[in-house]
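Q: Given only this backbone (153 positions), what sequence would you predict?
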């Protein structure tokens, strides 16, 4: 079962997956300035936590950031605007259009021809527990090579 897109746990995991994606971090820093810088810091704190050498301040920052994300931070306005744009055109047959939105796990890589297109559902790693209480590590991503080909046929 996929959680609704406004489900707070989804946004926490979404943000964490963006922080784990070097391609997304680079894009966010270039396009969105301080939002990307803050996400880069989250990535660094999470890396230190994974390595077992996070400071208490690092852990507090991670907790604070995740809480803010679950409550609805400023970055969600971009995602909601993209969703509104899609909804505006959804069902419109008066002209040809397409909408491509990469997941937060956007990363460098070559085309393999193996990807899944999903509509109105959250694709989760089939090898993991499918519960939605904790989505960390379960949300799938896509490589730049696949993304470049998935909407061009």
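A: Predicted residues:
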């Amino acid at each position: 079962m996929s959680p609704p897109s406004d489900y707070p746990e989804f946004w926490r995991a979404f943000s964490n997956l963006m922080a784990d994606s070097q391609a997304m971090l680079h894009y966010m820093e270039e396009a969105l300035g301080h939002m990307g810088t803050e996400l880069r810091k989250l990535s660094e704190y999470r890396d230190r936590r994974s390595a077992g050498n996070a400071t208490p301040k690092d852990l507090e920052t991670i907790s604070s950031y995740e809480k803010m994300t679950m409550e609805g931070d400023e970055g969600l306005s971009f995602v909601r605007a993209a969703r509104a744009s899609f909804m505006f055109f959804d069902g419109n047959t008066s002209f040809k259009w397409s909408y491509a939105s990469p997941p937060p796990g956007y990363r460098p890589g070559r085309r393999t021809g193996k990807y899944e297109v999903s509509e109105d559902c959250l694709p989760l790693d089939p090898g993991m527990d499918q519960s939605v209480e904790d989505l960390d590590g379960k949300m799938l991503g896509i490589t730049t090579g696949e993304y470049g080909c998935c909407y061009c046929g």
